[in-house]
């Protein structure tokens, strides 16, 4: 099978299997775009490859147990001048300080009758308000657990992006070639800035490839 059935089953358990969506599809649509906009984004999920199989990743703060490898100064290739080939981007533009959900689609008006915002007050105070707007025709307040799902998804996204997601680009040695996009790795480097402490140097910081 080309589908990561085990990973998807684990993800289903983590999210919970009680949530429902209800769609009325009245026109043709691009399947990939429709699934991403109507299902995966509202569930804080994204397509990923796991062990050469199609799977889904989850927008949430990574945990140490998920790390599959470690990248440190010894893993980094240096250029002819001995300079490590690594760059750092604070990536503040990725900051999300609030998540606005629009749901209860009204087929008569063509709009959404309900909205719920999940926000991080500390992030807004520090960085300003950077909203992510999510809307799905399948989210209905008449379905049990919809508000709980919205709160859980919003909280998960904010935990990951309320301070932005710093990005690094690094050339590593061949032994790291089995790392795949979506994998969680621990990064340690004396060369990178620590945004929390304000000093230079990171130790076992979790990052997603």
Walk me through the structure.
- The protein has 209 residues and is α/β, with parallel strands linked by helices.
- It has a three-stranded mixed sheet, with no helix packed on it. It has a three-stranded mixed sheet with strand order 6-5-7.
- The chain has helices at 5-15, 31-40, 121-127, 146-161, and strands at residues 45-50, 53-58, 67-71, 86-89, 98-106, 111-119, 131-135, 167-170, 184-193, 200-208.
- Strand 9 and strand 10 (200-208) form a beta hairpin.
- It contains four helices and ten strands.
What is the overall pLDDT average?
89
Q: Approximately how much helix is present in the residues?
A: 10-25%
C-alpha end-to-end distance: 24 Å
Outline, from the CA principal axes? Answer: globular
Pattern of helices and strands: HHEEEEEEHEHEEE
Structural class: alpha/beta
Major pleated sheet? 3 strands, mixed
Count the E strands: 10
Rg estimate, integer Å: 20 Å
In the sheet with the most strands, the strands line up as 3-9-10
Low-confidence stretches: none
**Beta-strand content bin:** 25-35%
Number of H- or I-type helical stretches: 4
Can you give keywords for this protein?
single chain, 209 residues, alpha/beta, three-stranded mixed sheet, 10 strands, globular
Short characterization:
With 209 residues, the chain is of the alpha/beta class. The chain is built from four helices and ten strands, in the order ααββββββαβαβββ. 21% of the residues lie in helices and 32% in strands.
